[in-house]
Structure formats: C-alpha cells, structure tokens
Amino acid sequence: MPRKPTRFEHTAATGLVAASQIAAAFRHPEYEGFLEEYRSLNSEVSKAAFVHRWIALNAGRLENFWPIFYECLRIVRDKSLYQDVQILGQRTGETYPSFEAYLQAKVKMPFQTWAELEQTYHFACSVAPELMAKPFTE
Fold first, then answer.
1. Residues 95 and 83 sit within 8 Å (Cβ to Cβ)
2. CA–CA distance from 1 to each of 4, 5, 60 (Å)?
3. Distance from C-alpha of 128 to C-alpha of 134, rounded to nearest angstrom
4. Of 33, 66, 65, whose CA–CA distance to 50 is shortest?
5. For residue 5, what is the DSSP state?
6. C-alpha distances out from residue 56 to 3, 24, 49, 52, 104, Å
7. Is the pLDDT reported for residue 9 higher than 50?
8. Computed from CA positions of residues 73, 75, 79, 85, in that sequence, does the dihedral angle turn out positive or negative?
9. How far apart are CA 61 and CA 12, in angstroms?
C-alpha cells in the first residue's frame, strides 16, 4: 500500500519557501496571531521570509483599502447614514448626532493607533516627508 506523504507542521519551517507558505497569519493578520506564527519559526531566515511576505501581502491590501475606506466614509457622511437606525442597527437603536460623532466612535482607534505608531517609528515621515508636510492637491 502506498504511503501517504508526511506533512510537516509549520513549526518545522527553516527555509524561505517553507516560511513563505505559512498562510494562517496572512488570512488573519491580528497582532497576536502574527506573533504566534513568527515565534513558531525555527530560524532567522524563516522569520525574515515570514516578515517580508507579510509586509508584501498587507501593503497591497492597504493600497486597495484606503480608497475604498474613504469612499465608504464619504457615502456615510453625504447620505447621513450615521443617523439611520435601520442601517446601524434596529436592535440597538444605535445612531449618531453627527458624522464627526460617528467617525469618533467607529474610526478613532485605528487613526489614533496609526498616529501613535508614526510618531514612534516615523516611517511615513522619513520615506516621504514631502507628502506628510503639506496637504494633498491634485
């Protein structure tokens, strides 16, 4: 009877290919899941490959995410959806008196976190200071 090939767990990953095939943290990019996967790798090479692959995958998502996110916020603002209980939740009766209140309640933490990270690491400011120093114009 033919033997079924042995499947190696991701904790055995020691090379670039093995580390780049770990998909769990790519599908679930929560911080704890990322750290658990990262710490499970056995070599600096596999850890470096994992980090590089995670950045590459998520940077592409961010490029698509921001325009969609801002367009969604524009729709909520322009149509005053923050005041519509049918949209926000009939069971909870959740509404907001203004777009600003909605934005603070729904989005404050991600923006605050991004601002704190940028103040700590200065990645955006150091890579593209001209973009961060002035308002965007077309």
1. yes
2. 9, 12, 46
3. 11
4. 33
5. P
6. 37, 15, 10, 6, 30
7. no
8. negative
9. 28
Cα torsion angle, 24, 28, 29, 30, sign: negative
Q: Angle, nearest 10°, between helix axes 44-78 and 99-121?
A: 150
Q: How confident is the model over 76-122, as pLDDT tens digits?
A: 999 999 998 877 776 777 899 999 889 888 887 777 887 888 888 88
- Calpha distance 60→125 (Å, rounded): 20
The span from the CA of 118 to the CA of 138, in Å, is 24
Query: How does DSSP classify residue 97?
Result: S
Contacts 24+ apart (CB under 8 A), 17-26: 18/46, 19/45, 19/46, 19/47, 19/49, 19/50, 19/53, 20/49, 20/50, 20/53, 22/50, 25/50, 25/54, 26/53, 26/54, 26/57, 26/58
Q: For residue 99, what are its two tokens?
A: 């777009």
Rg (CA), the chain: 21
